[in-house]
Amino acid sequence: MNFEQLKPNVIQILEDTSNDRDTKLKTLCQFLSDNVSYYNWVGFYFANHETKTLHLGPYVGAETDHTVIPFGKGICGQVAESNANFVVPDVSAQDNYIACSFTVKSEIVVPLFVNGKNIGQIDIDSHVLNPFTEADERFLEFVNSEVSKLF
Ligand code: SME
User: Fold this and answer.
1) Phi and psi dihedrals of 104, rounded to 5?
2) What pLDDT, in 10s, does the model give residues 88-139?
3) Helix spans in 1-151 (H)
4) pTM assigned to the model
5) Are 143 and 10 in contact (CB under 8 A)?
6) CA 98 to ligand 1 centroid distance, Å
7) CATH number at residue 110
8) Of ligand 1's atoms, which has the minimum distance to the CA of residue 64?
9) Is residue 94 in contact with ligand 1, taking CB distance under 6 Å?
Protein backbone atom coordinates (compact mmCIF):
# COMPACT_ATOMS: atom_id res chain seq x y z
CA MET A 1 0.00 0.00 0.00
CA ASN A 2 1.35 3.35 -1.09
CA PHE A 3 -0.57 6.51 -0.24
CA GLU A 4 0.50 8.22 -3.47
CA GLN A 5 -1.15 5.43 -5.45
CA LEU A 6 -4.42 5.85 -3.54
CA LYS A 7 -4.73 9.58 -4.23
CA PRO A 8 -6.13 9.34 -7.78
CA ASN A 9 -8.82 6.94 -6.56
CA VAL A 10 -9.78 9.34 -3.78
CA ILE A 11 -10.24 12.11 -6.34
CA GLN A 12 -12.20 9.82 -8.64
CA ILE A 13 -14.57 8.71 -5.86
CA LEU A 14 -15.27 12.30 -4.85
CA GLU A 15 -15.77 13.50 -8.41
CA ASP A 16 -18.33 10.82 -9.31
CA THR A 17 -21.26 13.00 -10.31
CA SER A 18 -23.71 10.09 -10.21
CA ASN A 19 -23.49 9.97 -6.40
CA ASP A 20 -24.63 12.45 -3.77
CA ARG A 21 -22.23 13.72 -1.11
CA ASP A 22 -23.04 11.16 1.58
CA THR A 23 -22.71 8.30 -0.90
CA LYS A 24 -19.33 9.62 -2.04
CA LEU A 25 -18.15 9.90 1.56
CA LYS A 26 -19.34 6.41 2.41
CA THR A 27 -17.62 5.04 -0.72
CA LEU A 28 -14.47 6.88 0.32
CA CYS A 29 -14.63 5.37 3.84
CA GLN A 30 -15.02 1.91 2.33
CA PHE A 31 -12.13 2.51 -0.08
CA LEU A 32 -9.81 3.62 2.72
CA SER A 33 -10.83 0.74 4.95
CA ASP A 34 -10.31 -1.76 2.10
CA ASN A 35 -6.91 -0.41 1.08
CA VAL A 36 -5.13 0.40 4.31
CA SER A 37 -4.90 -2.76 6.40
CA TYR A 38 -4.82 -0.97 9.76
CA TYR A 39 -7.77 1.38 9.00
CA ASN A 40 -10.46 -0.69 10.74
CA TRP A 41 -13.15 1.94 11.35
CA VAL A 42 -13.32 4.97 9.08
CA GLY A 43 -15.89 7.72 9.44
CA PHE A 44 -16.72 11.40 9.37
CA TYR A 45 -18.13 13.57 12.11
CA PHE A 46 -19.62 16.99 11.36
CA ALA A 47 -19.73 19.93 13.73
CA ASN A 48 -22.75 21.93 14.83
CA HIS A 49 -21.10 25.09 16.13
CA GLU A 50 -24.31 26.35 17.75
CA THR A 51 -24.85 23.31 19.97
CA LYS A 52 -21.11 22.58 20.14
CA THR A 53 -21.61 18.96 19.21
CA LEU A 54 -20.21 16.58 16.60
CA HIS A 55 -22.60 14.38 14.61
CA LEU A 56 -21.72 11.07 13.01
CA GLY A 57 -21.81 11.11 9.23
CA PRO A 58 -20.97 8.36 6.74
CA TYR A 59 -18.75 5.60 8.14
CA VAL A 60 -17.76 1.99 7.69
CA GLY A 61 -16.90 -0.42 10.47
CA ALA A 62 -18.55 -1.52 13.66
CA GLU A 63 -21.73 0.29 14.60
CA THR A 64 -21.11 2.94 17.24
CA ASP A 65 -23.29 4.39 20.01
CA HIS A 66 -21.35 7.64 19.74
CA THR A 67 -23.43 9.40 17.13
CA VAL A 68 -23.31 12.73 18.97
CA ILE A 69 -20.13 13.88 20.76
CA PRO A 70 -19.92 17.18 22.68
CA PHE A 71 -16.98 19.45 21.80
CA GLY A 72 -14.14 18.72 24.22
CA LYS A 73 -15.13 15.10 24.87
CA GLY A 74 -13.01 12.23 23.59
CA ILE A 75 -10.39 12.48 20.89
CA CYS A 76 -12.97 13.73 18.38
CA GLY A 77 -14.34 16.41 20.68
CA GLN A 78 -10.86 17.66 21.46
CA VAL A 79 -10.07 18.04 17.75
CA ALA A 80 -13.29 20.05 17.32
CA GLU A 81 -11.71 22.61 19.67
CA SER A 82 -7.99 22.34 18.87
CA ASN A 83 -8.31 22.38 15.06
CA ALA A 84 -5.24 20.11 15.03
CA ASN A 85 -4.55 16.52 14.04
CA PHE A 86 -4.67 14.10 16.98
CA VAL A 87 -2.73 10.86 16.71
CA VAL A 88 -3.27 8.39 19.54
CA PRO A 89 -0.76 5.51 19.33
CA ASP A 90 -2.31 3.72 22.32
CA VAL A 91 -5.86 4.58 23.36
CA SER A 92 -5.40 2.92 26.76
CA ALA A 93 -2.98 5.73 27.66
CA GLN A 94 -5.57 8.49 27.02
CA ASP A 95 -7.69 9.96 29.81
CA ASN A 96 -10.12 11.85 27.60
CA TYR A 97 -11.08 9.02 25.29
CA ILE A 98 -14.47 7.57 24.31
CA ALA A 99 -14.15 3.82 23.85
CA CYS A 100 -16.19 2.28 21.06
CA SER A 101 -14.89 -1.26 21.17
CA PHE A 102 -12.23 -3.14 23.12
CA THR A 103 -10.72 -4.15 19.75
CA VAL A 104 -9.63 -0.56 19.08
CA LYS A 105 -6.01 0.06 20.03
CA SER A 106 -5.20 3.37 18.34
CA GLU A 107 -6.89 6.28 16.63
CA ILE A 108 -6.19 9.23 14.32
CA VAL A 109 -8.44 12.25 13.87
CA VAL A 110 -7.76 14.93 11.24
CA PRO A 111 -9.92 18.06 11.07
CA LEU A 112 -11.84 19.01 7.93
CA PHE A 113 -11.60 22.69 6.99
CA VAL A 114 -13.88 24.52 4.59
CA ASN A 115 -12.79 28.11 3.92
CA GLY A 116 -10.62 27.93 7.03
CA LYS A 117 -13.45 26.76 9.30
CA ASN A 118 -13.26 23.42 11.11
CA ILE A 119 -16.53 21.80 10.01
CA GLY A 120 -15.80 18.25 11.11
CA GLN A 121 -13.22 15.53 10.88
CA ILE A 122 -12.20 12.17 9.57
CA ASP A 123 -11.83 9.64 12.36
CA ILE A 124 -9.98 6.34 11.96
CA ASP A 125 -9.72 3.57 14.53
CA SER A 126 -7.19 0.77 14.28
CA HIS A 127 -6.94 -2.65 15.86
CA VAL A 128 -3.15 -2.27 15.68
CA LEU A 129 -1.03 -0.53 18.31
CA ASN A 130 0.90 2.53 17.11
CA PRO A 131 0.38 2.15 13.33
CA PHE A 132 0.07 5.82 12.33
CA THR A 133 2.96 7.88 10.98
CA GLU A 134 3.31 11.33 9.50
CA ALA A 135 2.52 9.74 6.15
CA ASP A 136 -0.99 8.97 7.42
CA GLU A 137 -1.39 12.56 8.59
CA ARG A 138 -0.26 14.01 5.25
CA PHE A 139 -2.47 11.56 3.34
CA LEU A 140 -5.55 12.26 5.46
CA GLU A 141 -4.94 16.02 5.13
CA PHE A 142 -4.98 15.45 1.37
CA VAL A 143 -8.19 13.40 1.66
CA ASN A 144 -9.86 16.15 3.67
CA SER A 145 -8.72 18.89 1.30
CA GLU A 146 -10.45 16.94 -1.50
CA VAL A 147 -13.55 16.32 0.66
CA SER A 148 -13.76 20.05 1.48
CA LYS A 149 -14.49 20.71 -2.23
CA LEU A 150 -17.88 19.00 -1.75
CA PHE A 151 -19.01 21.73 0.68
N1 SME B 1 -12.95 7.20 20.08
C2 SME B 1 -13.57 8.44 19.70
C3 SME B 1 -15.07 8.28 19.65
C4 SME B 1 -15.60 7.99 18.31
S5 SME B 1 -15.35 6.38 17.85
O6 SME B 1 -13.91 6.12 17.67
C7 SME B 1 -16.17 6.00 16.47
C8 SME B 1 -13.19 9.54 20.66
O9 SME B 1 -12.57 9.29 21.68
O10 SME B 1 -13.53 10.68 20.37
Assistant:
1) -80, 125
2) 999 999 999 999 889 999 999 999 999 999 999 999 999 999 999 999 999 9
3) 3-15, 21-35, 74-82, 134-147
4) 0.98
5) yes
6) 5
7) 3.30.450.40
8) 7
9) no
